[in-house]
Amino acid sequence: MPSSVVAAIRYDENTSRLRVIFQSGSIYDYLKVPVKVYNEMKKASSKGEYLNKEIKRNYEFERIR
């Protein structure tokens, strides 16, 4: 999953939390994200672009680190 912005993504189906680990070391959890959105992000050619267009403006988040 090479990306200049996103280092890794994780998804917890029990809580519907999408964890995004950035190349900078910051970690954010996006809340109530449907598994369909997670699967689409996994397939996106640009993880950062998908995050900006489909997730950041549509889901609440918590900064973890």
Give a nutshell description of this structure.
β1 and β2 (17-22) form a beta hairpin.
Explain this structure.
With 65 residues, this protein is of the alpha+beta class. Helix content is 28%, strand content 31%. It is built from 2 helices and 4 strands; from the N terminus they run βββααβ. The protein has a 4-stranded antiparallel sheet, with helices on one face. Strand 2 and strand 3 form a beta hairpin. The radius of gyration is 11 Å and the shape is globular. It starts with 5 loop residues before the first strand and ends with a strand.
Keywords, separated by commas or semicolons:
single chain; about 60 residues; alpha+beta; four-stranded antiparallel β-sheet; 4 strands; about 30% helix; globular
Note the main sheet. 4 strands, antiparallel
Please indicate the percent range of residues in DSSP E strands (runs of 2 or more): 25-35%
Rounded to an integer, what's the Rg over CA atoms?
11 Å
Number of strands: 4
Poorly predicted ranges (pLDDT <50, ≥5 residues)? none
Q: Going across the major beta sheet, what is the strand order?
A: 1-2-3-4
Tally the helices.
2
Distance between the termini: 21 Å
Write down the domain tally. 1
Fraction of residues in H or I helices: 25-40%
Give me the secondary-structure category.
alpha+beta
Element-by-element helix/strand order: EEEHHE
Average pLDDT, all residues: 95
What form results from the Cα inertia axes? globular
